[in-house]
């Protein structure tokens, strides 16, 4: 079976994790701190706060931005459901905005169309690694005092206007799930511009403690910690961080290999009429965390039927990016508003994700393209 993605893991990762096991300190500790610094440096961020997942990083970001009950948070429906869920975690209401038909990302126009007097934040997703035009969004939001949280879950290694995605963002949340280019098994990161906000984020992820468990044990003196506010257990382990430190050294090579494979897909699929493939936006470079295509309305078979054909040929595909507003949990929002999102509806219905992974061969790519071409009647 040709998988959708296969993480790049080797002996270096195994050795790094084994070293942590031998050290006896496997919870959040010195390797987490090292990974936070290394990741923040690589992404051009001032501070990094490791978390248990990107979802918990988004949750923290909204808390730190002061979002709470009665507030609105503008989000794309075209995203994994965690993006919308984060707003509900803090008692706010997600308000769905439509997306650009080419990038799958929010735009200034689509966000401005749904802003309300209750809007307290916007979560902008770098969809499948395609960088969102953050400067354009901030031009709309900054003037209104609305913070923009960048959901960069898929975007490690992508480039926005010549800089790593996330550079200079007030809040950016990252995922290290196995489907991402850089994995720690599970885990996430919140990168931040403010040192004061980063200190509070570190407290909140560890039950609100005034001093971390690692610092308390390393201090050499008796320390009686305080619990300054209600916090959470959103910690990453040193086992995961050790994995992440090795993975970070691979990132550049992994991105370049995926870009080469994506370019080859684009060349091969150019012969299939009407198919739209994900591409770089004019203002940046994607890491191709996922390679998605959009079928034209007159394609001879539907999206789900094409997925069945791929599966029958020993190829694992996935539906395209989900639309949260079509899921039972969000069909009607708490305020009774329903979403009118024509671009989102079309993309989620007509798109699918093709296999793309570091060790993918040209023969495997040819097999994928042949199934699509045959389905198209070529």
From TrEMBL:
Entry superkingdom: Bacteria
Catalytic site positions: 180
Entry-annotated residues carrying N6-(pyridoxal phosphate)lysine: 180
UniProt keyword annotations, A-Z: Aminotransferase, Pyridoxal phosphate, Transferase
InterPro entries in the record: DegT/StrS_aminotransferase (IPR000653), PyrdxlP-dep_Trfase (IPR015424), PyrdxlP-dep_Trfase_major (IPR015421), PyrdxlP-dep_Trfase_small (IPR015422)
GO molecular function: pyridoxal phosphate binding; transaminase activity
GO biological process: polysaccharide biosynthetic process
Cofactors named for this entry: pyridoxal 5'-phosphate
Keyword Lipoprotein: no
Gene3D superfamilies the record matches: Aspartate Aminotransferase, domain 1, Type I PLP-dependent aspartate aminotransferase-like (Major domain)
Transmembrane stretches, start-end: none
Any Pfam family the entry gives: DegT_DnrJ_EryC1
UniProt record similarity statement: Belongs to the DegT/DnrJ/EryC1 family.
UniProt protein name: DegT/DnrJ/EryC1/StrS aminotransferase family protein
Species this protein is from: Actinopolymorpha singaporensis
